[in-house]
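seq:
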Amino acid sequence: MWRERFDRYWRGLVLSGFGIAAIAWLAATGRLGWYVHPRYFWFTVTLCGIAAIALCAAVPALHRAAREADGDANDRDHDRDSPPSRTHRSPVARAIPAAGAVLLVVATAAALLVAPPTTLSVATAQQRQVNTGTGPSDGVALSGEDADRDARDWAMLLRQGGGAEAEGRTASFIGFVLPGADESDDVFFAARFVVSCCAVDAQPLGVPVLSPDWQRDHAEGSWVDVEGVFVANPDVTSDQPVVLRPFSITPIDEPDDPYVY
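struct:
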């Protein structure tokens, strides 16, 4: 009986409460930007507050509905001449639905409130493929000094005219180490996720870095500070006609805000 009442009246309320608490926690700890573009912070937090108010208002209404439903069921049982027939089930059969309801709530709480928030991984970048498709920054005009450009800016420049405009210019930026799908062991990408709305639409953009046997010193997904000069790729069969020949590749910690917008 309790499981039917919980499924009908309270499960959605509890799961919604977990979602609201998770969003509020991310906003309070400054990690909401791992999932939502900063321009949508106030919109997200405001809707979260409205949902919290609606949730609180729904509690007495659902409590009253549950009591009325129980009263109607009791009245129907008293009006009958004989007690209603019930299908007898084994304890295991009765326990399975209850265990499923509890497991759903516990799993949701663990995923939203217990598991630490994480940024997008190398595996995600490989699934979405670096520098492919119509990235969220296509068509954006590049301006400013070379010293101020990040990995996204240089990746965009390399996509224009085969990268000829970048050749001979020096660059310094940070990114995570991402192996190229079709590149040799001499090249990796120093990449960043570019977010236009939220983490769901994030696209990896990166700069090909010419560094033979880079795997010996840099693990996939580790963050590096790269400084070098753009040169023609000595591998004429590569899809990257221009690569960065590094002066230095320095390991660093993941930045507090790993995405670019």
